User: Which sequence fits this backbone?
């Protein structure tokens, strides 16, 4: 049991002013960059783009510094992983990639159907740092059926950085994935020369308008990312939310319960911040729990914590995708149906799963398990099998938590946060989305038909 008796309640760190208020999605901007003053801290996500320009890497690192520093000072979250000399990199921060909110609100069957509708689903539901789509192909009778599953954990901010600061490399990366050439005229409506003469803010705005969009009702003007799932487009899958989750959980919180001090539970931390909605997302709650367990080690006496930082390279990775329970024709799916790309072998960020166009079989013939217990898979089912998460670096040896580092928060009854209640704002939004899909069965089908081809 952690002993907090030596930490008087009046000797605690106050939570940062305004820290817990809801943050609107800020349009990304790049701070002014001083060239050649310091080596970049972070490489490209997954080390996928080793040939990108120094200007792009410098801009990426400036952006990361702005996002991480923007959340304020934390006693255990370190901005630069190089400052953790004896650090150990952990891949233990992971969660399933399928959207949890529709599962809690509507149940598994409806959640799966709603999550497999292409762009509409990505924009409305995919918020666990994984976005996916199904490649549709006609069978011998002409009926469109799912052929392949494509998923990405790539950060939009990195793809935007490449486009803004190294257009030629960006276009080559696009061509490698899509297996066709796109010109800057086609994607952005201007020549490379005209693009490079624009102010950086104008390039950023154009990238958002043309390739990212602004939610379900305002898709991007060009279908590149809709059709090929190059990067995550939903704002909740961005750098800011990831840094927020890491930061707010990196304090040693305690409560006074029955006259005694104890280590706060995760639900009490979310309740303190009035962010019960975030508690019901796997990505935020799992990341927060992992960080909190390092910043305030449960059972340590005296109380101890470890310094932590995003490991280099900073990105979101597919840490596991077990296929041993996936079968077709009563046998395990072929090994060559599983294709990772975009990232080193240890840090993949893109997955294609399923047969090629020259194979007569389809994805909807695959089952999870065999025999009487077998059930057909969906994109949602496959997303659930993918374990998603960042790499985090932590000191090997913990240190004592000082008195001024503790943060006292109110205690709450266990089980106070119940996910999936019909009356919550998020469940109402998801139910409305379901009603719209039911009344307009074609929602998402137009982009799915064109997908990957």
Assistant:
């Amino acid at each position: 049991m952690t002993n907090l008796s030596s930490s008087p309640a009046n000797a605690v760190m106050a939570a940062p002013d305004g820290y817990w208020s809801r943050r609107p999605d800020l349009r990304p901007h790049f701070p002014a960059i001083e060239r050649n003053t310091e080596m970049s801290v972070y490489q490209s996500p997954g080390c996928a783009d080793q040939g990108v320009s120094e200007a792009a890497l410098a801009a990426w690192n400036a952006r990361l510094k702005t996002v991480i520093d923007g959340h304020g000072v934390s006693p255990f979250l370190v901005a630069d992983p190089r400052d953790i000399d004896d650090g150990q990199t952990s891949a233990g921060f992971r969660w399933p990639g399928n959207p949890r909110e529709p599962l809690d609100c509507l149940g598994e069957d409806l959640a799966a159907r709603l999550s497999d509708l292409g762009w509409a689903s990505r924009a409305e539901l995919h918020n666990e740092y994984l976005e996916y789509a199904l490649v549709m192909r006609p069978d011998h009778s002409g009926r469109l059926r799912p052929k392949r599953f494509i998923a990405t954990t790539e950060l939009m901010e990195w793809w935007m950085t490449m486009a803004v600061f190294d257009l030629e490399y960006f276009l080559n990366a696009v061509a490698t994935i899509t297996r066709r050439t796109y010109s800057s005229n086609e994607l952005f409506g201007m020549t490379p020369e005209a693009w490079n003469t624009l102010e950086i803010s104008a390039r950023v705005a154009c990238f958002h308008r043309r390739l990212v969009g602004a939610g379900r009702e305002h898709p991007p003007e060009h279908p590149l990312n809709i059709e090929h799932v190059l990067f995550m487009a939903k704002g909740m899958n961005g750098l800011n939310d990831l840094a927020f989750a890491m930061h707010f959980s990196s304090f040693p919180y305690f409560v006074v319960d029955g006259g005694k001090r104890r280590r706060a539970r995760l639900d009490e931390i979310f309740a303190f911040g009035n962010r019960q909605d975030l508690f019901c997302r796997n990505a935020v709650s799992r990341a927060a729990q992992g960080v909190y367990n390092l910043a305030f080690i449960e059972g340590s006496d005296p109380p101890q914590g470890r310094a932590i930082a995003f490991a280099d390279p900073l990105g979101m990775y597919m840490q596991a995708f077990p296929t041993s329970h996936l079968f077709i024709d009563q046998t395990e799916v072929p090994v060559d149906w599983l294709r990772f790309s975009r990232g080193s072998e240890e840090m993949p960020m893109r997955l294609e799963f399923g047969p090629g166009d020259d194979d007569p079989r389809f994805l909807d013939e695959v089952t999870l398990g065999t025999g009487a217990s077998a059930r057909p898979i969906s994109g949602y089912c496959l997303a659930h099998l993918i374990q998603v998460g960042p790499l985090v670096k932590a000191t090997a040896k913990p240190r004592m938590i000082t008195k001024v580092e503790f943060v006292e928060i109110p205690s709450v009854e266990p089980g106070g946060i119940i996910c999936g209640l019909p009356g919550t704002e998020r469940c109402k939004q998801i139910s409305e989305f379901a009603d719209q899909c039911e009344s307009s069965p074609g929602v998402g089908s137009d982009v799915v038909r064109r997908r990957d081809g």
